[in-house]
Design a protein that fits this description.
This protein is an alpha/beta fold and 140 residues long. It has three helices and eight strands. The protein has a four-stranded mixed beta sheet with strand order 1-4-3-2. It has a four-stranded mixed beta sheet with strand order 5-8-7-6. A hairpin with a 7-residue loop joins β2 and β3.
Length: 140
Amino acid sequence: MRLDGFGLLVDDMARMIRFYRDVLGFEIKEEENTSNVYLVKDGTLFLLYGRKDFEKMTSRRYEYIKGLNGHFEIALYVDTFEEVDEAYKKAVENGATSVLEPELEPWGQRTCYIADPEGNLIEIGSWNKSYETKDLMEGC
C-alpha cells in the first residue's frame, strides 16, 4: 500500500476550502459545492468530506471534537526561519487560531502551531534548509 492522501471531515465546507486554498496554498481540484472536495498540496491528495454526507454514505454517526483538536497535526515545511514567521503571520491574519507563536526549539527547528477554522492543528516549521536537503545528514 502507498499513502495516497488524507482527509478531514468538515462542518463548514466553504470556509474550510477558502482557508486551505487561499491561506495555505492548497490547489483545489473541482467545484466547491460538492460533498467531497479534493485539494492537492505538493503532490499529496488532501480531501475535505462534508460530515453529514460522509455519515449518510457510511450509515453511521460520528463524534466530533469542538474547539482545538489534539488528535493529529498537519505538518507544513518552509525553507527558512523567516518563512515560518511570515507564514504564521499570514495564517493568523486570515483566520487561523494561534496555538504557538514561532520559536526556535532546542533541537534546531523553528516551528509554530496554528489551528484551522474548525480546530485542526497545523505545524509550520523549518530547519533553515531547503526541503530537498532537510533530511540529509551533515558531515557524511
